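Slide 14.
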Amino acid sequence: MAELEESFKRINNKLQQLLKQHLLLQKENEKLKETLKTIQLTKDQDTEQISRLQQQVSILKTSIGQMTEPDKKAFEKQINQYIKEIDKCIGLLSE
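Slide 15: predicted structure.
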């Protein structure tokens, strides 16, 4: 009988340890999720800033006339894309 009680106590202790470890892992998981959200937000902001800076470089190259032929084609392609987006917006507004 005493051996059975000892076994139950050991099992109970191990179960309590597992529960504590589970709670710690849940907390760590939540912290990691928050860190991931922060990193993704920073990445998105950095991507937007890179895009804006690339546009500014393109505009500056155009204004001083130092665009190469591939740069001109890329710039025209981007302008055409903006025009398509503007046309789409005008179409949505006129509905």
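Speaker note: DSSP finds two helices and no strands in the chain.
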